[in-house]
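User: My instructor asked us to take a sequence, write out its structure as tokens, and then describe one feature of it. I'm not sure where to start. Here is the sequence I was given:
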Amino acid sequence: MQLGLYLLSLAPILTVFLLLVIAKRPAKQAMPVAYLVTAIIAWSIWRVPISVWIASTLQGLVMAAEILYIIFGAILLLNVLRASGAIATIRQGLLGISPDRRIQAIIIVWLFGSFLEGASGFGTPAAVCSPLLVALGFPALAAVTIALIANSTAVVFGAVGIPVLLGINTGLEGAVVVNDYTSELGITYADYFERIVVRVGIFNSIVGTLIPLLMVTCLTRYFGQRKSWWEGLQVWQFALFAGLAFTIPSTLTAVFLGPEFPSLIGGLVGLAIVVTAAQKNFLMPKQIWNFPPPEAWGDGWRGSLTAVINHTERKMSLSRAWLPYVLVGLFLMLSRLPLLPFQRLLKTAKFSFSNILGTEISINSEPFYLPGTVFILVVILTYFLHRVKSKALTQATLDAVTTLRGTSLVLAAAVPMARVFINSGFNQSGLASMPLTLAEGVSSLAGQSWPLFAPSIGAMGSFIAGSATVSNMMFSLFQFGVATEIDISGAIVVALQAMGAAAGNMICVSNVVAASATVGLIGCEGLLIRQVLLPLCYYVFGAGVLGLVVIYGLKIV
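Assistant: Let's start with the prediction itself. The structure tokens for your sequence are:
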């Protein structure tokens, strides 16, 4: 009976994987099927009331609309910058640093993207960096692939620490088993939470330092003329240097300042160090690497967003061209800092519906607080700063709306499917929710080797929920409970959960769909997931092995 429940709880995830990755069906076909499979299992086996199913669907639709709003803002900003000539200037500036596409990728998606993740989260890095790379001449498929790979390490402390501050805290704080454990240790929960943060910061940086190298090797293997791993490995010195330029300041910030700013400070410091080093030709490759000519690009490499650059007669300084993106980062950071009044002001406009259809499910939306609002504000400022013509702004808006048409249908199925899956705990069967049932099945098989599997549960949570924060909310207490049951360090196991949740962002369907939408890729979701499976496996398996070594080898608690 239990084995049957474990398999049934796996069915929604398996449906998505089989249709997208194995059968190579587009998300617009796969996600409605996965939604129906999830709803049928929830209703027939978990005995989830129809009211909960409908409420979960409505909740998912609102969340999907929020994602579309963010994508729209990111695309609109890029379109306006192309019309003003800023993208042409940025392109020339990056070519001035290095014409090597591997170096450009590291600077934009690993460092600038990590800064954006630290400031905002919400899938913002991929939504900003993917179309920027396409505008610089990257194939759309390559741009999204490396943006997804890079949006992993920084996610642990993304959005000024929300995955840890809100995700882990919500899961652990106030739980009887946690309070009993901290009492036995003779420390407060705050002290124990600080211990978790330090372990997350250190362990995540150990694994994450190699992500830039893995990212560029995937870039050269999948999109190079020779399809070579070696061409990516040739920049191992620079890639490792760039990895450490982010992870060292990020770790130090986590240890000494807490979870709010590691990704943000790591991204800023890393950018300053790496760009300066690249300009001085430090550790730069001897041979320049580029994509094959556009006419030789493979099927599906292109999206509807093209690399056409508007070369205006007006000369624009590099600082003026980058100013809108600087403003995006600055406004996102200012709006997320709890010490400043902006966060509170932006959250005053709130749409909230509690106990939908008599259930315990609520819908909460804070539209002004979403990154999409920041994008639109920066678009308005750019209109004046870059003296964009009204006709160009109108066309940029129409193009952004057109890009979203196919994506809206996919998200309208994908996000509600995730909410039905997560909310299956509201049932009449007495069973734990489907995610918890699945996690319990894995833990019963793993036994003392649980640290090896703990990151996979975190990644699964992000794949389902589309959020590292939600994954940590769902599974932190479960992970702590398993650790207590087998008498190993709960702090380390919860840290592994956070690392897995961050890695899961690479294959999260809503992130894949959103990033694809910004460059006009349709129906390539399964291919993208296949191409990031290797980096995902490295991250999850690397974190698991590290956990085993630290717990059983070094005996750290």
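For the description part of your assignment, you could build on this observation: Residues 452 and 467 are 22 Å apart (CA to CA). Try explaining in your own words what that tells you about the chain.
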